[in-house]
Amino acid sequence: MQTSPKTSTAVAKTLEPGSIDVTLRINGKSHTLQIEPRVTLLDALRERIGLTGTKKGCDRGQCGACTVLVDGRRINSCLTLAVMQEGAEITTIEGLARGDELHPMQAAFIKHDGFQCGYCTPGQIVSAVGLLAEGCPTSDEGIRECMSGNLCRCGAYPGIVAAVREVHQTQTSNG
Ligand code: FES
Ligand code: FES
User: Fold this and answer.
1) Which domain holds residue 125?
2) Quick check: CB of 156 below 6 Å from ligand 2?
3) pLDDT tens-digit profile of 22-66?
4) 7 lies in a domain?
5) Which of 54, 74, 77, 170 is most exposed by smallest CB count within 10 Å?
6) Are 126 and 72 found together in one domain?
7) Which atom of ligand 2 is found nearest the CA of 124?
8) Cα–Cα distance measured from residue 117 to residue 171, given in angstroms and rounded to the nearest whole number
């Protein structure tokens, strides 16, 4: 019987030579994968675990579309290997909301029109949540500087800055 190309691809993926077991803790749940050590965290999230909220833009650390939190700190998931993040707490855009309740940053992006096409938006929001813990200045200029690793081709920057400023100021005034 002749094997279709589609079937061959699926088999090749399952039987990757050199695969190792990697356990990742993502949004409070553990996921054990068999992957090659060279697989990036971004590809593991999107292609192996099915968490496609984290976007692939440049795949080389220049756009921020792939931003996730690792132990609360922002990183570009295209620039780190999944195997390097074993034991860390990884948070993706899917992990921010609490059930039906949006994270305040998600709600603020909607309120202030902080997006157009939405492709950069998960990375922008995750980055903005990470920024809150970093002691970034609350001025527009400070927010722009702290968010400079997240590019938006649609130019939705005024709304993005307004959303981050509002959440930042609310958090600061609530102590
Ligand atoms: Fe990772 Fe662009 S996809 S920085
Ligand atoms: Fe389109 Fe940012 S909303 S790239």
Assistant:
1) 104-173
2) yes
3) 999 999 999 999 999 999 999 999 999 999 999 999 999 999 999
4) no
5) 170
6) no
7) 2
8) 28
